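Repro case for the chain-ordering regression, as requested:
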Amino acid sequence: MIFFELFYIFFYIGLFTFGGGYAMISLIQEEVIKHSWLSEEALLDFIAISESTPGPFAINIATFVGSQVGGILGAVCATLGVVLPSFIIILLVAMIMKKALKNRFVQGGLNGVRPVVISLILSTAIFFFIKMAFTSGKAFNINTSEFSFDRTGIAIFLILGFFILLHKKKKKKSLSPITILAISALMGILVYFVFNLH
Amino acid sequence: MIPILQREVSEKRKWMKDEEMLDILAISESTPGPIAVNTATYVGYEVAGFWGSFFATLGLVLPSFIIIYIISFFYKDFMTWKIVQAAFKGLRIGVIILLIKAVLKLKKAVKFSLLSWIIFAIVFIGLFLTTFFNVNIKIGSFSLSISLLFILFGIIVGIVSTAVSKKEDKE
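-- result from build under test --
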């Protein structure tokens, strides 16, 4: 059943997310594609929306995926799923084992999982990039042929990346995620809508 | 979120001291799950027990849930507009850049030992191969998540290496 599936998949995603919202993207991506719930393009759209709306990223993305797959009940199941492991674990920690986290084996496990998470996020980014740059979106549920990056997209990527690096060098401060998203949306409108380049 | 939390919880309401807040943040970052949820649950528990944590977490989740649920209503219609499609084509590139930025930021925050680099490389190559050859690992009809296997792998290697280094210390 779709609701139970949403719940248990987001439950295990919540359970195995170490180190902030982006750490869950590779897990979400794998599950969402495997179940044919969304295409990579739609997932990227959801990430953009979740990042530019208020509230924790993890909650936003769970609610979004849940609502697209199973309506309001789907949204409730996915959100409950992603919150519950945290809730249970933190309650246990707060009640009975505050010292457990200082245990060297727990710290060892955390040290082991950190490089995995970094590697997972990097691989996901590269995977998205390759998928966007070299194939047209096949599984997208809205309009398939419209959604691929092509050479124009790669050019935007390089220009945007260069601009961000330049800004960091000059101002010694990196741009906020929301600013980066705003600039990229604006570039998208300019290139694909105003000048109609493809 | 953290500056707001600090102002509301410790400065205005005096529910907690600043040091306690720091402890809670450290714990929230090293337990699984979204950091915001962890923090809300913990602060709620410390201030008012189980129901405190329940309502703190509910309070954190509800605004997000409502906003996103409303957006999800308009999303599909919205995506039929040409100008929105163009904006999202740009946004997808922005998201990929955000992911790369997150990698660089996390890499800076974590001390990489030789073992960390080895784990990093194994996961990277492993994911590449399993994606490229479209590998599916199944137990019966249940298909396992490859990312999850790598996460478990990292935890186990971390624990085993701690155990091994402890033995070496004794010798």
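Ordering looks correct now. DSSP finds seven helices and no strands in chain A.
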